[in-house]
Amino acid sequence: MLNDSHRNQFYWDAMEPFVTGKRVIDIGAGSGLLSLMAAKLGAESVLAIEASKDMVALAQLNITRNDQSDVIRIIHDMSSNVKLKEEEKADVIVSETLGALMLGEGTLDYMADARKRLAKPGARVIPAGGAQFAMLIASPSLAQVSSVQSDCCKGFDLSAIGSLQDTGNIFFTKQWGFRLNLLPDLVEMSERIQFLEVDFQKSDRQHIPSTKTFRLTALKDGVIHAVVASWEVWSDEERTHKITTHPEDTRGAPWGFSRDMQWGQGLQLVEDFDLACKSERNTPPAPFEVKKGEELLLTVRFSVPCKQTFQFTLRRASVADAKDVRFTDKGQ
């Protein structure tokens, strides 16, 4: 991530108006880069908190080499274990504990805990908020690597192996070692919808519902192969500065490869859910074929109790039982 210059500029720009003369806490300080930025921007003091012993040693080296030891103090601990005196509490909380899924590394819990225990009332939190998005896609290339192709097996029927395909969990593009924006045949099969928005200055995990269902419309005829999850976060209430993991935003950017390899996107493969419910255990997933204009229901289920991850279920609106739909939205 250190080579993602756009991400680094985002944090510099986000902190610049707010940290001069202030007490700053950096949660998940890592290399110490954000702490060094805050000190350079004129913070009165910076408390860098990092759970990795090795990273603490490297961050201390970076702090010393950049002559900021008089401003930055680093602690080896989880932020949830740190205790501060009242006069030590922060005016500004900054953190980059984002994952391939926006909340996947526990950033909401760390922020909420820091707001309550380590900061003054009304302390500014950077980033101020963020949103998680989903979009349906088609890509024969993606299908080629995620399912058994009959024309590749010398005429043998190996379709039973397809029953092992995981269509119930999210994986990350970086785990598969590819960039979604380089797939030559990727087609957007729906609008991108926002299914979660978080205010890091106010939200707690209990504000996130367990389940939400959204109504989508197929944009083209074809087969839906996957749901893509990406996010964006913003610097302040006015959303003056943003960073995103949307595939089109990293395509061709000099920092794009670094971001895609560090974060990338979440990806969940899709099968025809209603046919799967009627199939035998060893039946391979049935393709989810749609017609342009067909209405679909995308249900998002958040992990309990942490609410850090989620999984999708895609169904046809014409088939889904209305009693199954607890909350419906057209997206934002």
TrEMBL record:
A Pfam family: PrmA
GO biological process, one term: methylation
Keyword set includes S-adenosyl-L-methionine: yes
Gene3D superfamilies named in the record: Hnrnp arginine n-methyltransferase1 (2.70.160.11), Vaccinia Virus protein VP39 (3.40.50.150)
Protein name from the UniProt record: Protein arginine N-methyltransferase
Source taxon at top rank: Eukaryota
Keywords per UniProt: Methyltransferase, S-adenosyl-L-methionine, Transferase
InterPro entries in the record: Arg_MeTrfase (IPR025799), SAM-dependent_MTases_sf (IPR029063)
GO molecular function list: histone methyltransferase activity; protein-arginine N-methyltransferase activity
